[in-house]
Amino acid sequence: MPYLVPASDQAIARAARRLREGGVVAFPTETVYGLGADTFNERALEEVYELKGRPPHNPLIAHVEGAPGARRVVAAWDERCERLARRFWPGPLTLVVPRAARVPSRATAGLATIAVRAPAHPVAQALLAAFGGPISAPSANRSGCVSPTTAQHVAEDFSEAADLLIIDGGPCPVGIESTVLDLSGPVPRVLRPGAVTVEQLREALGADVAAVPVTEQAASPGTSPWHYAPRTPALLCATREIPRRLEALREPAAVLAWSGLPVAPPHRPIAMPRDPRGYAARLYGALREADSSGASVILIEEPPPEEGLWAAVRDRLARATQR
Ligand code: TXA
Ligand code: MG
Questions:
Q1: Of the residues 149, 177, 212, which should be mutated to test ligand 1's pocket, given the most ligand atoms within 8 Å of the CB?
Q2: Which residues line ligand 1 (CB under 6 A)?
Q3: Is the pLDDT of residue 206 over 80?
Q4: Is the entire prediction scored with pTM above 0.90?
Q5: Which end of the chain is more exposed for a tag (fewer CB within 10 A), N or C?
Q6: pLDDT average, residue stretch 293-322
Q7: How far apart are CA 138 and CA 54, in angstroms?
């Protein structure tokens, strides 16, 4: 088993030392846990890919200490970046911009652009400060699985990585991955919706922002639509369809429902919050629970058709239910 240590100054100093020695550490961010390595150490980056089983063409996000940190890894930092960083950093917004020549190509899967984000979580910030440089980190799950929102999720996914250090900072408050905004072209494009919404980005930039629908995302690197799928088959269902489906099922189903609709044994209800923030924060834990409940299928009640954070939730549900 990996070792899980509660967040403390000592734990953070130990993790920073590991990063300097070329090691990999798992740490909490406000979105999900990350599996981090020194952005400038190719061997360490390689170990991240190996541990995760991540396809080599899927680039990583460099975590930085604000705009000054970002400037060390990017080739261009324009007025739009400055404005977005001032408004949304530290926070769940990742910016894709031209990569500085000195960043190893392994950090971006060979792309000429790099994704950068300044996390808001105090433990992630303390780790960045103690390490003193950018930390490249994908979500700390095995490739293709549901992202981890607790240190225990990380330990479960990497149970065989005996020397992996995991800093336990409790559950991640946002619960879904950051918004990824591509600023490398003339029109900003949201490649992955998140807690910073398209509406907020349009307002902050005073310009159009394109959203790439989940079904077209296989074209952008590493965003295969089934990226966040549980192992058990999962289906999205309209509220009124659920009772009929449950009746027809012979084997137990797990049901993620936000409307309070009744679910009788042998089926297993997993109550979801009605508000989008609560729902997002609970989602990956609920999917993991459903996945390990022995259910033959996971039925997910369609969330409200509203914009904002619900749009990001629908994106993750579309990925979780698409095969
Ligand atoms: O909230 C988050 O973003 C979490 C925490 C740990 O910060 N990280 C995360 O990393 O979700 P990951 O590797 O699971 O997802 C990164 C996403 C992928 O979809 C990847 O394709 C995209 O960002 N990405 C990274 N670099 C890119 C680039 N240069 N161009 C386009 N997309 C990029
Ligand atoms: Mg991921």
A1: 177
A2: 29, 31-32, 34, 58-61, 92, 94, 96, 108, 111, 113-115, 117, 137-139, 177-178, 180, 182, 191-192, 220-223
A3: yes
A4: yes
A5: C
A6: 94
A7: 9
